[in-house]
Amino acid sequence: MRILRLSASPHAVAAGVAAGVFVSWTPFIGVHFVMAFVITYFLSGNMVAAALGCAAFGNPLTYPFIWGITWEIGHLLLSREDHLAGQMVDLAALFHKLNFTELWRPVLEPMLIGAIPPGIVTAVALYALTFYTVRGFQARRRTRLIERARLRLAGPAGDMPSV
């Protein structure tokens, strides 16, 4: 409901939500909001909608599913099913040392490549869904406000005041 009540155009709200959802697929958790804001800026979107899209789609409940999906899609796209089979990757040691070059190939590269297809699909789908939902909500809201203003001007007797 918070997204629907934003006072921005339907495109701005939908672009923000789509950007937030798209970056939630990437493995760079610490910078999702920054990435969403940059994409939203270039799409002329709403920054609050981007933050809400990030927080709603990418959260501790969804990350395990997102990581599993991006991992599998990335390995499929990079044709690495058998290439890394049998190799042990000590993620704790890699993260402890923060050695990006050793972490890139076995973990981040497949997850980043694997994030692109589902990110695009969900961003486009949620853009369309959000755009039409916000447009309908704003039209109904505008109609209700006009009706209330007309009733207030009519006064208690229902007659329009004379000027």
From TrEMBL:
Residues of the DUF2062 domain: 2-142
Pfam families: DUF2062
Domain of life: Bacteria
Transmembrane segments: 12-43, 111-134
Keyword terms of this UniProt record: Membrane, Transmembrane, Transmembrane helix
InterPro entries: DUF2062
PANTHER family found in the cross-reference section: SLL0298 PROTEIN
Protein name: DUF2062 domain-containing protein
The organism of origin for this protein: Rhizobium aethiopicum
